[in-house]
């Protein structure tokens, strides 16, 4: 933070003194203070005041200071164009002077862009992207505040209301004709406007009665503010004869509007007022400054940033998370301005098994959750073919721990991988308890089988592989005479079951009755079941 001192020395100033000719002026090179936001400024006034006096400092941003010594320290937080003024008050007399203050203003950073796809929430680790900050010179115009408004209407409670508007940038200019004041707008509500007097007072004490007692106001525009009905009245040279009283008054200084109500009830609310000056006066006394920024000395900083040239730099972050990138540029007054942007580096990631273990044959829904992914390759670790879809369901047929690797590539060719492990275990060995079936072709219980369809592998709608939890199976089905009707030496044919025909060939139906079976089945969990039972074959007559 820099420290600057501004000296206010005795010269001829605009004086509105009743009892004594006070003098105060600001003598600055070019009549302008130049500083940067955050600079510590010391304003010091030199005047001909003798004895006790008060100095009222107005920094033109809503901030004020009152001192009994002719100096004050101040620091502007924001850049812009200001009129700094000091009013010396002593023995009922006052004198005011003001200077221009140019506080370095930040450039317009809204043009920032990068070449990251906006549909992504992050980028690939190590991917290079481009930061672009175009900067143009910026013109700042001084705006003379010509209004006073409250956030909520004030109630008169049957008393007077007054507020001020202060013009600072018109030097020694005066009101040359009644047309120099285009209008005075007042926003208020009064139950009976004939009971209110409205008076405008110029900086040198001249007055114009905008509305006198017993004069009803007409032509107002009604609106609602803060749940109260308000009226806006516009006073112009054509409808306010007293504007002529203000000719010759200085423009710079305090303009006061006063309302006095004769009502004793709470029936008058005031929002505020504004003074519109002729556009020609505003134009001739307006001022502005241009901020010039040096892109040759602009710098981007952050993890993985290359050299900055004309506001452009490449960056390649090297770690996961949100990275801050800062842009710093100086203006022609040596003020440094900066802004920051944030870029998220997202590692490749996918979802898979919901728990630590999965049963053999259960389908796992693997899904790529990387927002920047343009291509995906799945390695399931079981010698199965690679998959290239973003979502890839997969099932494992043998017990074990498998390494699942998802390789994903961005549109720019950056590659990242995510690896997870899934443990596959067999289901506990189980076979159905079946003792009756009805092979009558009605589609219900037409086949005798030890297995539920849901416990078997399905492919294209048909059972094609052994049940997930069974390693081997032998079974013999025979009649009451001990004759073998059907037998299975492996799992696969047993899946399709016994259809109630001899040798399961479908050519010769077995008669209804009781049949017997002997079953030996070994599970992938290492257990073996031996079971014998009866089967009741039933046919409708």
Arithmetic mean pLDDT = 87
Strand pairing plus helix content: what structural class? Answer: mainly beta
Strand content: over 45%
- Give the overall silhouette: elongated
How many E strands?
Answer: 40
Question: Can you describe this structure?
Answer:
- This protein has 541 residues and is mainly beta.
- The chain is 2% helix and 46% strand.
- It is built from two helices and 40 strands.
- Strands 2, 3, 5, 6, 8 and 9 form a six-stranded mixed β-sheet that branches. A five-stranded antiparallel β-sheet has the order 13-21-15-19-18.
- The longest helix has 7 residues, at 279-285.
- The chain is elongated, with a radius of gyration of 45 Å.
- The termini are far apart.
Which tags fit this structure?
2 helices; six-stranded mixed beta sheet; elongated; five-stranded antiparallel beta sheet; 541 residues; mainly beta; 40 strands
Write the layout of secondary structure elements.
Layout: E1 3-8, E2 14-16, E3 32-35, E4 40-45, E5 54-58, E6 64-67, E7 71-74, E8 80-90, E9 93-103, E10 113-114, E11 129-132, E12 138-141, E13 147-155, E14 160-167, E15 181-190, E16 196-201, E17 207-211, E18 221-225, E19 228-235, E20 253-261, E21 268-277, H1 279-285, E22 288-291, E23 299-301, E24 312-315, E25 321-330, E26 336-345, E27 350-351, E28 357-359, E29 363-368, E30 375-379, E31 391-395, E32 400-409, E33 415-425, E34 436-437, E35 458-459, E36 462-463, E37 470-478, E38 484-488, H2 491-496, E39 513-523, E40 528-537
């Amino acid at each position: 933070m820099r420290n600057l001192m501004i000296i206010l020395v005795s010269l001829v100033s605009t004086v509105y003194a009743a009892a004594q000719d006070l003098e105060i002026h600001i003598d600055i090179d070019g009549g302008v203070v130049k500083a940067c936001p955050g600079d510590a400024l010391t304003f010091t006034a030199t005047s001909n005041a003798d004895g006790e006096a008060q100095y009222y400092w107005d920094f033109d941003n809503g901030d004020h200071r009152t001192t009994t010594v002719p100096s004050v320290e101040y620091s502007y937080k924001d850049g812009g164009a200001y009129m700094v003024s000091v009013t010396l008050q002593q023995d009922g007399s006052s004198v005011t002077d003001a200077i221009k203050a140019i506080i370095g203003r930040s450039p317009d950073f809204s043009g920032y862009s990068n070449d990251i796809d906006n549909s992504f929430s992050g980028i690939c680790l190590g991917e290079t992207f481009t930061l672009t900050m175009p900067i143009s010179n910026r013109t700042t115009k001084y705006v003379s505040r010509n209004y006073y408004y409250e956030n909520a209407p004030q109630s008169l409670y049957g008393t007077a209301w007054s507020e001020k508007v202060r013009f600072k940038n018109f030097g020694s200019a005066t009101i040359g004709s009644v047309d120099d004041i285009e209008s005075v707008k007042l926003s208020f509500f009064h139950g009976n406007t004939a009971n209110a007097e409205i008076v405008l007072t110029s900086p040198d004490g001249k007055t114009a009665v905008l509305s006198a007692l017993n004069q009803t106001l007409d032509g107002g525009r009604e609106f609602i503010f803060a749940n109260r009905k308000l009226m806006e009245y516009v006073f112009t040279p054509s409808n306010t004869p007293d504007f002529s009283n203000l000719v010759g008054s200085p423009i710079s200084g305090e303009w006061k509007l006063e309302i006095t109500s004769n009502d004793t009830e709470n029936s008058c609310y005031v929002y505020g007022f504004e003074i519109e000056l002729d556009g020609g006066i505003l134009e001739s006394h307006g001022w502005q400054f241009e901020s010039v920024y040096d892109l040759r000395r602009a710098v981007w900083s952050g993890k993985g940033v290359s050299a900055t040239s004309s506001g452009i730099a490449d960056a390649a972050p090297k770690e996961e998370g949100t990275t801050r990138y800062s842009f710093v540029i100086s203006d022609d007054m040596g003020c440094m301005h900066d802004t920051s942007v944030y870029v998220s580096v997202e590692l490749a990631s996918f979802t898979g098994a919901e728990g630590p273990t999965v049963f053999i044959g259960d389908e796992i829904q693997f899904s790529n959750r990387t927002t920047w992914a343009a291509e995906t390759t799945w390695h399931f670790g079981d010698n199965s073919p690679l998959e290239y879809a973003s979502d890839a369901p997969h099932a494992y047929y043998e017990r074990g721990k498998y390494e699942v690797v998802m390789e994903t590539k961005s549109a720019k060719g950056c590659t990242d991988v995510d690896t997870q492990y899934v443990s596959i275990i067999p289901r506990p060995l189980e076979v159905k308890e079946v003792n009756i079936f009805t092979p009558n072709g009605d589609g219900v219980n037409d086949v005798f089988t030890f297995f539920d369809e849901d416990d078997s592998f399905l492919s294209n709608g048909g059972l094609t592989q052994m049940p997930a939890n069974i390693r081997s199976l032998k079974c013999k089905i025979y009649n009451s005479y001990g004759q073998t009707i059907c037998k299975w030496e492996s799992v696969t044919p047993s899946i399709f079951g016994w259809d109630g025909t001899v040798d399961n060939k479908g050519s010769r139906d077995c008669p209804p009755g009781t049949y017997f079976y002997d079953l030996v089945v070994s599970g992938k969990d290492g257990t073996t079941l031996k079971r014998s039972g009866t089967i009741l074959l039933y046919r409708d007559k």
